[in-house]
Every structure is written in C-alpha cells, then in structure tokens.
Amino acid sequence: MSQASVAPKHVRADLQRIASWIEPESRVLDLGCGDGTLLAYLQNNKNVTGAGVELSDELVIASVRRGVQVIQQNLEEGLALFDDQQFDTVVLSQTLQSMRHTEHILREMARVARYGIVSFPNFGYWPHGWSILSGRMPVTGEMPYQWFDTPNIHLCTLKDFEDLALALGLRITHLATFNGNKEVKLLPSWRSTLAVYRFETPN
Length: 203
Fold this sequence. Notes:
This is Methionine biosynthesis protein MetW. It comes from Pollutimonas bauzanensis. One of its GO terms (molecular function) is methyltransferase activity. By secondary structure, the protein is an alpha/beta fold. The protein has a single domain (about 5-200), classed as Vaccinia Virus protein VP39 (Rossmann fold, 3-Layer(aba) Sandwich). About 30% of the residues lie in helices and about 25% in strands.
C-alpha cells in the first residue's frame, strides 16, 4: 500500500475495510454518510465520484466542509431521486439497524447500484446473551443506548442478515467482522460486535 493510500487514524477500521472493497474511479453512494469521512477518503485516495445522503444538519455541514457532495434527506423516504444502476457501489454503514423498512432499503440499494455494502451491530455477540440471561437488555460499545432511548429497532445476528440477503436474492461476496478496531477471524458470530457485508445485486 502506498503512503498516499494509507488511511488517516480517524478513519475507523470498518470504514477502511469498506474502502478496500470499492474500486478506484467508481461511482459511490453513501447512505447515512455522517460527517463524510468515508467519502472524503475515497475521493482523495481512490478518485471516486461520490455522493452522500444524510439527515442531520450538523453532519451535512461537516460533510460539505470535507468536500463531499451531500443530499439532506430521510432514508426512510427511499431512494426515488436516484436512477436504476446510477452507482457502482452503495454503502449503508451502521444504519441498517435503525431503519424501519429494512427490506425496502436493501431492495432500493440493489436497484441503484451493482454492489451494496452494509454494516450493523452483531446482536449475536456473546456478552449480549449473558446480559439477557441476567434480565437486562445489552448495552455495549456498538449498542450504547438504554432500551428506552435506543434508535436501534431491528437488531440481528450474522445468520439473520445472511438469511434475509438470500431471501432478497442478494449474493454475499465478502464479510468482515470487528470488535472495536480489531478484525475478528475466529468465531466471528460470537466474538464480533460489528459485521460488514458486501453483496452483489441481481441482474
């Protein structure tokens, strides 16, 4: 890896892995792009043509300051403003679990791009089970909210997501799992707190 392509320290490990799955000079749509960190990195290091979608006023401003083109919109309203296969890759990072219409957003991702990348907290992480057995909803680094104020409404395990992808006709091509900034290779279904999937959409 050349010095120019080394990710700065503020780019999380999961975002670095997502970036590694995206081809140079491709077209990328980042849904829930946050402060634009991923798209800015891709623009600077892979010369992608990118656009982001974000609802928060503060994060939209932060994205623009990073030189990212961003559209302010609620993802629950869908992706109707984008054409079929307008992008090569569409990313939904750590947002899937907060979507009310999970199947709909995945179908829309499949419509607007050939490849999709999603990441979400792994509810199968083993301490979650202990927490539930002790009578409490789990509170961890990837899911830091109490049960009454959490935005996470659709929690799932790795197997849950894989079953849904299969039902929707999405072919999974890559999987990476993390616990904090460390990638997990051994027993990822139990030991990882975050899962990142890349899938290919139906023709």
